[in-house]
């Protein structure tokens, strides 16, 4: 308040509070000066313009200081918007920086230019199998897809055999040590062959979405569970990043094993779809669960090596952790099934004639659309017939089906 104000025309000096009009002194300075000596400056030439200038500034200051609820609300929303925009910008910048480290060999391959194409496919798949498909089939009879499913299952078997050969020839039987095998990012023909094999495996995940689509078209929507749809959605999504950044190396071992399991699994499905005449050739069905368990144990152990190997220069170890976590989760799920189905004895006792699912004349719907009558599986596409006792045994299938207490159910 001790600031000096100079009248530009008279050169007379005043304190800031003295220079204010009387009506503003109380508001600005906290006191009101009534002394005539302090008011003499108002009579000086130019005082009117000075007073008007100070008055205008005080008025504008009051308007700026006056808070309103709407302005506070707008300011809070603005800050939230700015924070969100900043976070989004940082995420985009981080993604762009990460893309600069992508494998240039795969950049121009189908579906690899960006996440958008596969995201559209995955979202469309989820929408169809959970909403659109069941709605369209609501007043429609189930489709008879027996021949289509036989062709589909054998096609997956043939494709899986080809992938096994390619995985072996491009690394796993041709130079890989089964320990710290890093990705070869060079244009060496063998390295490019491995990368292309990885892309073929990635593409096969889209083909396997037909598993769920067949369920919907055959009106077996009870089999379209969350875990089933999640599995078929997350596999291609995560593998896109694998192809983009890490197409090869020790992270592909689980893909090789998965192809081996698919040969056994889809062969079984195809033969089941061919009808009861081929049931006698499915004596190996009881080993299905064991094969699955061995697969996940091998995946977990192999990937787990990375934690204990010193100085393993794997460029993107995050993919190894994802594979290891995935294998560990499914290992736990399968062990849980094995425990409840076999160790605790919750399997169907042989020779029990009154099982509801197998009673004579009780043709309740089988999970794959085929009915059991007289305790004989009639043309079960995914069903299991115990030839000796003509009852359904407990077994877990690779696509998440299992028989428990005579009823074909869905597990995850």
Give the SSE layout.
Blueprint lengths: L3 E3 L6 E3 H4 L2 H8 L6 H4 L7 H19 L3 H31 L16 H22 L8 H27 L16 H19 L2 H8 L8 H20 L7 H21 L14 H21 L9 H26 L28 E2 L2 E2 L17 E2 L4 E4 L2 E4 L2
Antiparallel strand pairs: 1-2, 3-4, 5-6, 6-7
Family: Belongs to the ELO family. ELOVL7 subfamily.
Protein name: Elongation of very long chain fatty acids protein 7
Subcellular location: Endoplasmic reticulum membrane; Membrane
Brief summary of the model shown:
The protein is mostly helical and 412 residues long. The chain contains 13 helices and seven strands. The chain has a three-stranded antiparallel β-sheet with strand order 5-6-7, covered by helices on one side. It has a two-stranded antiparallel ribbon with strand order 1-2.
Task: Give a quick account of the main beta sheet: strands, pairing sense, barrel closure.
Answer: 3 strands, antiparallel
By DSSP, the count of extended strands is 7
Distance N to C terminus? 77 Å
Low-confidence stretches: 31-47, 347-412
**Cα-atom radius of gyration:** 37 Å
The number of distinct structural domains comes to 3
The helix count comes to 13
The class by helix and strand makeup works out as: mainly alpha
Numbering strands along the chain, what is their spatial order in the largest sheet? 5-6-7
Roughly how much helix do the residues carry, as a percent range?
55-70%
| Overall 3D form | extended
Main location: endoplasmic reticulum
Catalytic activity: a very-long-chain acyl-CoA + malonyl-CoA + H(+) = a very-long-chain 3-oxoacyl-CoA + CO2 + CoA
Pathway: Lipid metabolism; fatty acid biosynthesis
Membrane topology: Multi-pass membrane protein
């Amino acid at each position: 308040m001790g600031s000096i104000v100079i009248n530009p025309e008279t050169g007379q000096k005043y304190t800031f509070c003295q220079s204010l009009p009387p009506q503003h002194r109380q508001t600005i300075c906290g006191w009101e000066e009534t002394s005539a000596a302090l008011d003499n400056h108002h009579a000086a030439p130019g005082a009117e313009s000075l007073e008007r200038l100070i008055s205008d500034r005080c008025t504008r200051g009051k308007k700026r200081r006056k808070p309103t609820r709407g302005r506070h609300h707008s300011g809070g929303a603005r800050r939230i918007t700015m924070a969100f925009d900043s976070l989004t910008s940082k995420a985009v910048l981080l993604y762009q920086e990460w893309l600069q480290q992508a494998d240039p060999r795969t950049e121009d391959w189908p579906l690899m230019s960006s996440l958008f194409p596969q995201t559209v496919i995955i979202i469309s798949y989820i929408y169809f199998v959970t909403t659109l498909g069941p709605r369209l089939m609501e007043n429609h009879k189930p489709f008879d897809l027996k021949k289509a499913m036989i062709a589909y299952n054998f096609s997956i078997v043939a494709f899986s055999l080809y992938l096994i050969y390619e995985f072996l020839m491009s690394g796993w039987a041709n130079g890989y040590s089964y320990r710290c095998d890093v990705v070869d990012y060079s244009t060496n023909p063998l390295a490019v062959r491995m990368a292309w094999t990885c892309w073929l495996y990635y593409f096969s995940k889209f083909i396997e979405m037909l598993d769920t689509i067949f369920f919907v078209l055959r009106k077996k929507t009870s089999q379209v569970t969350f875990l089933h749809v999640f599995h078929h959605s997350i596999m291609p999504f995560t593998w896109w990043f694998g192809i983009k950044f890490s197409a090869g190396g020790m992270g592909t071992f689980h893909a090789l094993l998965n192809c081996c399991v698919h040969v056994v699994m889809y062969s079984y499905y195809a033969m089941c779809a061919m009808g009861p005449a081929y049931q006698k050739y499915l004596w190996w069905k009881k080993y299905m669960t064991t094969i699955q368990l061995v697969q996940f144990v091998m995946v977990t152990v192999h990937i787990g090596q990375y934690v204990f190997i010193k100085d393993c220069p794997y460029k993107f170890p995050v993919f190894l952790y994802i594979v290891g976590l995935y294998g560990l989760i499914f290992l736990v799920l399968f062990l849980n099934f094995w425990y409840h189905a076999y160790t605790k004895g919750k399997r169907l006792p042989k020779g029990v004639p009154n099982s509801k699912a197998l009673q004579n004349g009780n043709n309740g719907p089988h999970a794959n659309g085929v009915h059991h009558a007289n305790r004989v599986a009639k043309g079960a596409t995914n069903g299991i017939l115990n030839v000796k006792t003509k009852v359904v045994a407990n077994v877990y299938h690779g696509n998440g089906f299992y028989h428990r207490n005579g009823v074909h159910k869905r597990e995850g």
